[in-house]
Design goal:
The structure is a homodimer. By secondary structure, chain A is α+β, with helices and mostly antiparallel strands. Chain A has 2 domains: 1-109, Arc Repressor Mutant, subunit A (Orthogonal Bundle), CATH 1.10.10; 110-168, Ferric-uptake regulator, C-terminal dimerisarion domain (Dna Ligase, domain 1). Chain A has helices spanning 23-36, 43-55, 61-66, 73-86, 129-146, 162-167, and strands at 2-3, 7-8, 59-60, 89-92, 100-103, 112-116, 122-125, 149-160. In chain A, the strands form 3 sheets. In chain A, strands 3-5-4 form a 3-stranded antiparallel sheet. The first copy, chain A, has a 3-stranded mixed sheet with strand order 7-6-8. In chain A, strands 1-2 form a two-stranded antiparallel ribbon. Chain A binds chain B through residues 14, 91, 93-95, 99, 114, 116-117, 123, 125-128, 131, 134-135, 138-139, 142-143, 145-162, 165, and chain B through 14, 91, 93-95, 99, 114, 116-117, 123, 125-128, 131, 134-135, 138-139, 142-143, 145-162, 165. β8 of chain A pairs antiparallel with β8 of chain B, so a sheet runs across the interface. The structure holds a DNA duplex.
DNA sequence: TCTGAAAATGAGTATGCTTATCAAAAGATG
DNA sequence: CATCTTTTGATAAGCATACTCATTTTCAGA
């Protein structure tokens, strides 16, 4: 996967947000996307991006706020709306109490989610290329049939994570 | 698609919840599922099932309450939790203000959702059998790999519905 | 068909996530 | 450097949803 000047994004387990050595490119791309909608890449927004990138899986807002004592809750809520609008962050809605956020697709490899119905934790997984491709084209056909203009798709697998299975 | 005594469920456009002539079977199955968790199929719960079945697409709670003047908001919230737990109704969370509900799979053919990011409306669509099958097995493999015990999957296509495209 | 215990209802209230407000701080513009 | 705009942060407000509890309904056993 290549972004910008040719930086390669690597995978952790199962997915990493970005290669540790290329932080700068993440911030450059984030700044660029914000500029596109006339928004600044402020210190607070940069810190949110760092936290999301370091996590490697979707975080709730309390988790984001708790991981950096300089972040004010109200600003995090507001900035995540801005980052979402800029295409830097993506909101993940589950039936849990808190929404979760992760970096958007150019920052993050295309993936899907394992949502634990017990603890609310969300992990990432990817589909084999062939399955993803046939799914994509089927979705395009379905949308076209209904006159629907698609922008994205989300695929979640709900169930119980290993920890909660062990817990009972 | 066959349920219980062999009743055939038909499709409207694009999906219907049940064939109008076989309402009784829907209620019998709902009652049976509630009984399984020691819950009664009361008049209020029956009305909710009727409203959901008649709609043919996922409804918000205000929509459900508004369509039947005998339904109290607090009871609808509480009963939808019960119906969800019994496996009669399914909750659909979008980024919109209200959650939406539809009848669960034995009542409804397996399908996915077109979620309009502008107006929040949710419509149904189905995938070709082959795509659905390869997706299913890919999901099973992915879950197994992570030690995740899957119960269900959800696939949403987000974008703009025809009405909102026309509106601008 | 009674009768009483258990469950469900409904109106109001409480909870808690999220968003709006607004004065102060930071940054851009010329 | 001066001014105008954007962003911030603490607080308050909004709002979907869950809880409370007295009343009503349901169902099992007599």
């Amino acid at each position: 996967m290549t972004i910008g000047t040719g930086t390669v994004f690597h995978l952790r387990s199962p997915l990493a947000s970005y290669h540790l050595g290329v932080k700068q490119d993440v911030h450059q791309l984030a700044a660029q996307r914000l500029r596109r909608i006339s928004q600044r890449y402020t210190a607070g927004r940069r810190r949110i991006v760092e936290v999301l990138a370091a996590a490697g899986h979707p975080l709730t807002i309390p988790e984001i706020v708790g991981s950096d004592s300089d972040l004010a809750t109200s600003s995090v809520y507001r900035n995540l709306v801005t980052l979402e609008h800029a295409g830097v962050a993506t909101r993940i809605v589950t039936s849990q109490e808190h929404a979760r956020f992760e970096l958007s697709e150019p920052f993050n490899r295309h993936h899907h989610h394992l949502v634990c119905v017990d603890c609310g934790k969300v992990d990432d997984f990817i589909l084999p290329k062939g399955v993803e491709e046939s799914l994509d084209s089927a979705l395009r056909r379905a949308a076209q049939k209904e006159g629907f203009a698609p922008t994205d798709h989300r695929l979640d697998l709900t169930g119980t994570c290993p920890d909660c299975q062990a817990a009972g």
